[in-house]
Design brief:
The protein is an alpha+beta fold. The chain is built from 17 helices and 47 strands. The protein is globular, with a radius of gyration of 28 Å.
């Protein structure tokens, strides 16, 4: 073929103030290179973060000395490609300055032909301090710009917020769940690319109109040719369809647009609607009998729309896949590590497997991190997970000078081009929370930012905002990925240019971030009252389990107010908010390890209540994306799965609350209501059974009735008044519901009439037996008295099919242990090793 890639290796690095070069590990960054050379302590342990803030104020040098292969040099064209230069980098090749980069989100390509020789090439990169660069830009700009999550105090800069002036991952400067590690380095591989004759630099399958009957496509091929002339272009798919045409190319770069139609296409569907079928399109450019270039693209044929139309309540906000409305179930995703290159393919597979296992159909890539690696989107494509993709702007105001806007446009073009063939991309969103935080059209709303500036400054800052999010970014999306919707900011009501633009806690338009539970300390019950058209953020914190906490803390640190525990809580009073809510709802823990458990079941109950409130309101509300599925370091946070991929209690209750068929209770005064929610594409006729038990299993009352539920619908199916249930002690009773179809349980749920702290729990005497025929992978659990929040733990790392569940005497629960399959994004049955079982009785006083 006419193109050859050759990766540059054998890197070394050093501080510019020192003489000795040390081995560098590319992809990587300065922090990980220092750690792997034994030059710094473990960044995530104890309070070591504070001691490592000197790193971002230094200039760092990287060097690779290499001989170039003859077959590479033989090519007419030779380029040097950097897929991630983080961030301010002056690049020298054999002493010639060939590039000065300033945006970590871009791919930088340089003509290397004039500079590369056969032997002894020296590639030298000088990474200037992003903090020093930011300080210079801040001084030049004048007034600072709001950036509350920029932890400048830990960074030793006092109130100087510099993150907004650099096109670099915002969370590197700190966040309210993450540390401050402002990195420099080579985040992705560096390679030389040689080619001759012609090449295809991009193959985009534009989806003009896709239905089950036919897919009308426009394939766009970016072609670069040394010489002009007539060429033959062939296009084929992996299922045997083939097209051929003649093209006349000029010397240089050009685009060939090729309209075509596929009849009766196999469509790509999001999880729960059908198979996420993928096509591979391959283009071959030839001249005579000689094949000059080839390129392939994998995509799925689908029509994904964001539906915003007026209705009786306000206006809708939901996604439609191939004409079918989708209730979005999922979470916000943040970077899986503070250090980009430490996120392995295996870690991505574990996250996506966890999302699929938890009944997700969407992930939101939040705007304070980075545009994810290709494998993340490929796994979402393969597993039918829709992706809400933010551009990388969050919780800050940004400059809008010509150089900044030019950099943003190039960044957007690079990333939209890279991601636009992924069928999973459902939305491009301009930023996270800025519209609501600034609140341009309501003087007394927002986060108090506007009041810090003069009228003239405010006008300039808002004009810069509109330039980025209402002009540059939508222009790029419209030009390069017109089949995907653009939304300027999350949350936002509508693009109206007046007070109706900004979201509130119960907006009847747009999407909502609901944080009054947690930040405003409102009770969990408020999740039932504040429901919008699409809930794109809400959440509640917990600690990770004891094993994870011990990865960063010693036994002496096991106290809520210890220095280490406070350091691993980036949300101000977060630890004490957890305790405050636990005191409201939960029994008192016996000790600190017990508090870790209590915090997890507290978070789990909060997420269950929120998700089920959203799903019971389906049609009005059409999305529930909680904050957040993952962590970038081991920490107390809103994650449902800790840094090491260990599922918290919340992940299990979220899995059950996102099930395709849900049976959900809610209590309004003295009436208990049961709702059925179904995401299935067909109607259900089933039997609803309910039973009221004392905590020792004694049956007080029961009943059943036949219910009918339509496809993709939610409705209340039964109301039980206090008179119907009769007299009982609320602290000694549990109400169970089961939805049965042809002898098979479709869904089940339990309801209590008091908070967990008021339940009269005694030793449940849980028994565990191996399930017959499971080959040691499944277990049947029973109890003599109510067991609340049963935690089944395995010696091996993995998950159970259910966990943190309640056991009612006489109603056994069977769980199976699963491990992540090798090189796949799924969990498979496995032997767990030793199994231990505990419940709230073991952890509460």
């Amino acid at each position: 073929m006419s193109e050859l890639k050759w990766r540059i290796s054998n890197w070394t690095f050093k501080n510019s103030e020192e003489q000795e070069w040390k081995p560098a590990f590319v992809p990587g960054c300065v922090h990980t290179d220092l750690l792997k050379n034994g030059l710094i302590s473990e960044p995530f342990a104890q309070t070591n973060e504070r001691d490592l803030q000197w790193i971002d104020k230094k200039t760092w040098e990287y060097e690779a000395v290499f001989d170039a292969p003859g077959e590479l040099l033989a090519h007419a064209k030779l380029e040097l490609v950097f897929e991630m230069l983080d961030t301010y980098a002056d690049v020298y090749l054999n002493d010639a300055l060939i590039l000065s980069a300033d945006n970590m989100f871009r791919t930088w390509t340089v003509d290397a032909k004039p500079h590369v020789r056969e032997k002894g090439n020296r590639l030298y990169i000088r990474f200037r301090s992003p903090v020093e660069e930011g300080l210079a830009k801040l001084e030049s700009y004048g007034p600072g710009l709001p950036a509350p999550n920029d932890d400048s105090v830990t960074g030793g800069l006092e109130g100087k917020k510099v993150s907004v002036f650099s096109r670099k991952a915002p969370y590197h400067y700190g966040w309210d769940w993450g540390p401050r590690f402002v990195t420099s380095g080579l985040g992705r591989p560096v390679y030389l690319r040689g080619w001759s004759g012609a090449r295809i630099t991009d193959l985009y399958v534009g989806q003009d109109e896709v239905t089950a009957a036919e897919a009308k496509l426009t394939v766009q091929l970016a072609v670069e040719s040394e010489n002009g002339g007539e060429f033959e272009l062939k296009l084929h798919t992996d299922n045997g369809r083939e097209w051929t045409r003649k093209v006349v190319l000029e010397s240089g770069a050009q685009t060939v647009a090729w309209p075509l139609t596929i009849e009766q296409p196999k469509l790509w569907w999001s999880r729960g609607l059908g198979e996420p079928h993928l096509y591979t399109f391959t283009a071959v450019l030839s001249q005579g009998q000689k094949e000059l270039a080839q390129a392939s693209a994998v995509t799925g044929l689908r029509c994904v729309k964001l539906i915003r139309k007026p209705d009786e309540h306000g206006s809708s906000f939901y996604f439609e896949v191939n004409g079918i409305p989708v209730f979005a179930k999922g979470a916000n995703h943040i970077p899986n590590d503070s250090f980009f290159a430490e996120v392995t393919e295996e870690r991505y597979r574990h996250e996506i497997a966890s999302a699929v296992e938890s009944n997700f159909n969407m992930l939101r890539v939040w705007g304070g991190g980075f545009y994810e690696q290709d494998i993340f989107y490929r796994l979402c494509d393969e597993n039918g997970l829709l992706v809400w993709q933010d551009f990388m702007f969050a919780c800050s105001m940004y400059p809008g000078d010509e150089a900044f806007l030019s950099s943003v446009r190039a960044e957007a073009e690079d990333n939209v081009r890279r991601l636009r063939n992924h069928p999973s991309i459902a939305l491009w969103c301009g930023n996270n929370e800025i519209d609501a935080a600034w609140s341009q059209f309501e003087e007394d709303k927002g986060w108090g930012w506007k009041q810090l500036f003069t009228a003239e400054q405010r006008e300039r800052i808002w004009a810069d905002y509109e330039a980025v999010f209402h002009r540059v970014l939508p222009e790029v999306v419209a030009a390069m990925a017109p089949d995907v919707a653009y939304w300027p900011s999350s949350p936002m009501q509508r693009l109206t240019g007046n007070s109706e633009q900004h979201a509130t806690n119960n907006s009847s338009h747009g999407d909502i971030h609901y944080w009054a539970v947690w930040h405003a300390q409102e009770p969990f019950e408020q999740y039932n009252e504040n429901i919008g058209r699409f809930m794109s953020e809400y959440g509640f914190q917990s600690f990770p389990e004891y094993k994870t906490v011990r990865a960063y803390a010693e036994e002496k640190d096991m106290a809520l107010d210890s220095e280490v525990m406070l350091h691993h809580q980036k949300n101000g009073r977060g630890n004490f908010l957890i305790k405050d809510y636990a005191d409201r709802y939960m029994k008192q823990p016996k000790d600190f390890p017990s508090f870790l458990y209590i915090s997890q079941v507290l978070q789990a109950e909060a997420m269950k209540q929120a998700i089920e409130a959203h799903r019971r309101s389906m049609d009005y509300c059409m999305g529930s994306l909680y904050w957040q599925i993952n962590d970038c370091w081991p920490v107390a946070s809103w994650s449902s799965m800790d840094y090491y991929g260990r599922w918290k209690a919340a992940q299990y209750l979220i899995k059950n609350s996102f099930a395709d068929v849900l049976l959900s209770f809610d209590q309004k005064e003295d009436v208990t209501n049961l709702h059925v929610v179904s995401d299935l594409g067909h109607s259900i006729d089933a039997v609803l059974e309910w039973s009221l038990h004392e905590l020792d299993g004694t049956l007080l009352k029961s009943g059943s009735e036949t219910v009918a539920i339509g496809a993709r619908s939610a409705k209340p199916v039964l109301s039980l008044s206090a008179e119907q249930l009769g007299e009982f002690n609320p602290g000694c009773a549990v109400l169970a519901g089961r939805l049965i179809q042809a002898g098979r349980e479709l869904a089940s749920s339990k309801h209590y009439f008091v908070y967990a702290k008021e339940l009269a729990l005694t030793d449940p005497e849980i028994a565990v037996e191996e399930a017959a025929g499971s080959e040691g992978t499944a277990f049947v659990l029973t109890a003599k008295r109510l067991a609340k929040q049963v935690w089944v733990q395995a010696e091996e790392e993995g998950i159970f099919t259910d966990n943190f569940f309640d056991l009612i005497p006489g109603i056994p629960v069977t769980v199976q242990f699963k491990k992540k399959a090798a090189d796949q994004a799924l969990f498979v049955p496995a032997a767990p090793g030793q199994v231990t079982v505990q419940s709230m009785f073991n952890y509460a006083k």
